[in-house]
Amino acid sequence: QVQLVESGGGLIHPGGSLRLSCAASGIIRAFSSLDMGWYRQAPGKQRELVATIGYGGSTNYAESVKGRFTISRAVAKKTIDLQMNSLKSEDTAVYYCKLGSNVWGQGTQVTVSS
User: Mean pLDDT over all residues of the chain?
Assistant: First the structure.
């Protein structure tokens, strides 16, 4: 019943910015207490963690995105957001949001190209 839907992806030039949003639907108990995260998968590569946000708002980022990406959540709207600045070609991937340990969205494509 619980579903996550990502949006905000697209084509952007290097150095540009995008904001991804993940909307949760269905009945979710204690949304704000769950660990949440954004992951990405480039063609031919393994899915990797990009950023997480935990109970109390603590955050963690992959070294490759530190200082450029910011993860946040809006409890009332039940969304998980990822602000991406100074995008690089290496950021090109399908981005997935995750709620708790096993709920995933369908993914949204981010392509960074000149």
Answer: 95
